[in-house]
TrEMBL record:
Statement: the UniProt record of this protein carries the keyword Membrane: yes
Organism field: Chelonia mydas
Record-linked PANTHER family: UBX DOMAIN-CONTAINING PROTEIN 6, UBX-RELATED
CDD domains: PUB_UBXD1, UBX_UBXN6
Domain UBX: 273-348
Oligomer and partners: Interacts with VCP through the PUB domain (via C-terminus) and VIM motif (via N-terminus); the interaction is direct. Forms a ternary complex with CAV1 and VCP. Interacts with SYVN1. Interacts with HERPUD1. Interacts with VCPKMT. May interact with DERL1. Interacts with PLAA, VCP and YOD1; may form a complex involved in macroautophagy. Interacts with LMAN1.
Name assigned to this protein: UBX domain-containing protein 6
Function: May negatively regulate the ATPase activity of VCP, an ATP-driven segregase that associates with different cofactors to control a wide variety of cellular processes. As a cofactor of VCP, it may play a role in the transport of CAV1 to lysosomes for degradation. It may also play a role in endoplasmic reticulum-associated degradation (ERAD) of misfolded proteins. Together with VCP and other cofactors, it may play a role in macroautophagy, regulating for instance the clearance of damaged lysosomes.
Keywords in alphabetical order: Membrane, Ubl conjugation pathway
A single GO BP: response to stress
Higher taxonomy: Eukaryota, Metazoa, Chordata, Craniata, Vertebrata
Amino acid sequence: VKKELMAEAAASERRLSTGHKGPVSAVEEETAGLSVSGVYFICPLTGATVRKDQKEAHIKEAILLHFSRDPVAASIMEIHTFNRDREKVKLGVETIAKYLDNIHLHPEEEKYRKIKLQNKVFQERINCLEGTHEFLQAIGFEKKMLPVPGQGKKSNSIRIEGKTRHLSTVHVFVETTEEYYMLKEEVLTKLEDLKDCKEQLLSCEPVKAQLDRQLCVFKPSPQAAQFELPQDFYNLTAEELKREQRLRTEAVEKASMLRTKAMREREEHREMRKYNYTLLRVRFPDGYILQGTFYAREPVSVLYRFVREALRDDWMPFELLAPGGVKLTEENLAFNECGLVPSALLTFAWDAAVMADVKASGEEQKGSPLKPELLSAVQILS
């Protein structure tokens, strides 16, 4: 198994070495006309930026590549990342931890150093999970055929040099063997290392790619409120979206004036579930526009932090106004709860009281509020 993983890791390294490492342009040639070329993620293991539909395959390859460097860490990541049922993972990990605890407490007892592969608990809790065999082998277990105590049968034939020899008068006792994982003797001298492996196994979290904000700054544009989004932003397929739009149009035509508040709220709730992501733009007093991609269910506080990190004077308080001029004051609300999906243009405003103090002191805000390094990469909104 180890050789196979190493070979796959080598192939993965060649593939990943050609992966995209730099920032993603807001508009690429093949997606001309779209406000953003797609949804992208940053792999925490390689630092590469990959498209949404490539994310899982890339992470899997990155973990396999890690086997050549640290097989214990790689197998732990595999267990926690490749298996989706978190309850099964928890049960399997706790069972392995119990095996290791017993070895640590009773290193002199052989029964704790071996695991029968056909054991019901092993089959139901461990064998069903990806990465568990790799982990056991990485920490020092090896597969062996061992006799089962008290089991066997008499036979009048034996195997000699690959050939069966029949004995007419002598019967021999043939032991029944089964496959076990047996801990190597040398591991017993490094029990603290085994304990560390157990702690890593219990504390690990799934490897998750980080959403790439795809931060962009645009020059002032009359098209700031116009959005054309790629399919990545939607939960529904293109066909399902068209059908939903047709049905909604028909419903509005039939009973737009007869809907109750509850009916409108139900429709808005259904609308919110259609989107996984949202593309948000913030227009500054000088007309420049800051753009970023967010999860639809992220809180408004994330947007405030995103904007603050882009400011030249990040200590100054400011406000964000939603379309219509409503202040975004409830920072714990999600974007889809504020009607800011699947896209929205917001307005930036300095805190009025602070600006009054600035003017009273005779100082003026000069230049753009945005950091110079962002302005140096400014784009034209097309």
